[in-house]
Design a protein that fits this description.
heterodimer, A: mainly beta, 7-stranded mixed β-sheet, 0% helix, B: mainly beta, 6-stranded mixed β-sheet, 3-stranded antiparallel β-sheet
């Protein structure tokens, strides 16, 4: 059974940093592009970043470029999102998502909530 | 690249059919047969309901169907049931490095 379990969310002050993690199981992690998708309270889905199977390619939504870094550890079947210079508008549930190809998001984690507030 | 356009709301009575549209451009919806629909219940993670315009993953009821005409994709829910009340999001491959979602449609079962 495919499982994606996020962790690391919490309350952080504006300008602060946080790293969220995703532990994957039940599939060959190193064979898939992986993504982070976020959802602000009461709002829609926003794709944040993705990373190629070997980590050689990474892409970001304009709103987080230069502040967020996506990474992965295939030996540990884990995905990470390092978030720096956090802003109030980054407050959201962050979902770890598997890509089956062509941006087909077939498995989603339950999410980890990041709140940016003073 | 702009987000895909969905109506903010849709509704229908139990047993009826309802269709939700998703309008893009020739660079995304119209250019590829890689259109997806996700269902999200309150407090839950999104769930894939339709992929490649009209295919259903295992376990998704055949009451859910998808189609596409030009730059507009559609999700139809037939024989509406109370548990179909949820938010629905479309997404499309766009050939570039960004991933597009629609703003979402809240489906209400009256």
């Amino acid at each position: 059974e495919v499982q994606l379990v996020e962790s690391g969310g919490g309350l952080v002050q504006p300008g602060g940093s946080l790293r969220v993690s995703c532990e994957a199981s039940g599939f060959t992690f190193k064979s898939h592009w992986m993504n982070w998708v976020r959802q602000a309270p009461g709002k829609g889905l926003e794709w944040v970043a993705n990373i190629k199977q070997d980590g050689s390619e990474k892409y970001y939504v304009d709103a987080v470029k230069g502040r967020f870094t996506i990474s992965r550890d295939n030996a540990e079947s884990s995905l990470y999102l390092q978030m720096n210079s956090l802003r109030a508008e980054d407050t959201a549930m962050y979902y770890c998502v598997r890509d089956r190809g062509w941006n087909l998001f077939d498995y989603w984690g339950q999410g980890t909530l990041v709140t940016v507030s003073s | 690249q702009s987000a895909l356009t969905q109506p903010p709301s849709a509704s229908g009575s139990p047993g009826q059919s309802v269709t939700i549209s998703c309008t893009g451009t020739s660079s995304d919806v119209g250019g590829y047969n890689y259109v997806y629909w996700y269902q999200q219940h309150p407090g839950k993670a999104p769930k894939l309901m339709i992929y490649e315009v009209s295919k259903r993953p295992s376990g998704v009821p055949d009451r859910f169907s998808g189609s596409k005409s030009g730059n507009t994709a559609s999700l139809t829910v037939s024989g509406l049931q109370a548990e179909d009340e949820a938010d629905y999001y479309c997404s499309s491959f766009a050939g570039g490095t960004q991933v597009l979602f629609g703003a979402g449609t809240k489906l209400t079962v009256l």
